Amino acid sequence: MLWRTDDGTTTAQSSPQETQIDVSELEEEHQAFATGGSSAEANIVMQNAINMIGYTTEANGKGADKDTVRFISIIEPTTLEPGGTSSGDDYYRVVATNLYETLVREAPTDRTVLQPMLAEEWEIAPDGLSVDFTIKSGVKFHNGTEMTTEDVAYSLNRAINLATNVDLTGMMDRAEAVDDSHVVLYLKYPYKPVVNILTNPNFAILSKAYVEQCEADGTNLGRNPMGTGAYQFVSWTNGANITMKAFDQWNGGDVAIENLIFVFISDSTTAGIALESGDAQLFYGADSADLPRMIQNPDVNVMSVQSSGFYFLTLNTEDEVLSDERVRKAIQMAINRQEVIDGGQDGLGWIAPVPITPGIIGYPDEFVADPQDVEGAKALLAEAGYSDGLTIQLDCPEYNHYSRPVQVVQEQLRRIGINAELNIMEKGAFDTDLSNRNYQIAYTWIGASYPDADCIVYKLFHSDYANTTGQTNLANVVNDEADRLVEEARQSLDDDEREALYLQLCELNQEHAWYIPILQSTNTVVASAELGGVTGNSGSFYYVSDYTYQPES
């Protein structure tokens, strides 16, 4: 397949299942871990294994007669409507990418590489102000109607205007169907990673007629999804499962697995046991404490990569106490990130000193984080008028990968004289309070829905999103210099210039302590050894149409 890149060259891209590596080293490390060793050695093995991106499973042949995959997720999506939830909602994405298709997709083993999906090729204009997509012909929606360029333009324009996509679409003006095979996306200003944005399922292509019919008769699109994906919707039982079946007119051809059932089990340990016992074949949301046991199990494959997101403390600058920069700086100085990883993540994770993750464009390698300084933190609190300490509320969601690390943070704050009252909340209530800025300090997560720093920093730092609702600019940052850095980096087409601007932004954040990045975790899917073609993916794109029970010949 050929397409033109933004520098005018033409590029060839391999098919999704062609990228593999020699896995012998990984298997040796797994075996070394399984035969013993210290906890520290085990963690080193885990880190090395996780860093080996590109490992793809091969079916062991034991499930060759199966036609169903049961895919466990610890969180049930609230909707299956593209744009009905945040663009960074991984648990929605895991399900939606099997129902819907976008114009392009990320390569399974490298998020920065794009592959054709509903667009056969694309060309970015020399001035960077438009992208011309050549649309695949003969594509059918799940109701049997044929997709048109009008559907494509309608879907893109709908996505551009949705509030849930506001952090992704600021550079987009409009989409236009120019003929039966081309759609042009017009931009307000040049934006280098604009095509990467379109891999997000919030930009899935919908049937205009079906959406309008749902609006007219009151049908909930989020509960009755209909796209062009490899699998079509069958049923949704609240709190239990979402059932799909293979779409027999899928433009990608026949799939190896006929039935796909997403099963929702909120307790990650229970979910892991269900997979290990053979009740399911895939599991997303494993707890780090369970991974060592799973790695030792020859009947499962643990597919882990470094996540494209990070966990962090957001400090509400509108709060009476936290409006004082000295208090925020004291909190920042209290934190020992490695201690949080060791005590709250079983040693599995990477220090995140900046609000950008490695592996995406714009990561500032030269940034140096301030070290932990307990005595300096105490002095700052005293200077702010809290020599006798203070009490503050620390919120987090109820899941272990939030609540366990935050307990280490709680102890670190105690050492400098802050009594952090831990408030562990149901995830929906936590998200609501966060969106409404009804918190003092919160431990939360943000991810790059496409592999570029702007995806994260624009929505965290730009003043346009301060004092609004939604999970953007949570700290209510209003700073002219932050705005300038974000805007200049956003519009630059020079990667070196952008990285330098992001370095300045990260230093500015450290100076003012708006956000305190803590750790970058793993993104893990656990697969039955019966299943082949599974690859770890930092963006949570798991296309079951790529998988098979049949061993390689």
- What is the share of helical residues? 25-40%
Strand order of the largest sheet: 10-11-12-3-13-21-14
Poorly predicted runs of 5 or more residues: 1-53
Number of helices: 16
Which structural category fits the helices and strands? Answer: alpha+beta
Give average pLDDT, whole number: 89
The major beta sheet can be summarized as: 7 strands, mixed
Shape by Cα distribution: globular
**Distance N to C terminus:** 26 Å
Rg result: 23 Å
Strand content: 15-25%
In total, how many beta strands? 21
Describe the structure.
By secondary structure, the chain is of the alpha+beta class. Helix content is 29%, strand content 22%. The protein contains 16 helices and 21 strands. It has a seven-stranded mixed sheet, with helices on both faces. Helix 9 packs antiparallel against helix 11 and helix 15 runs antiparallel to helix 16 (495-512). The protein starts with a strand and ends in a 25-residue tail after the last strand. Mean pLDDT is 89; it is low at 1-53.
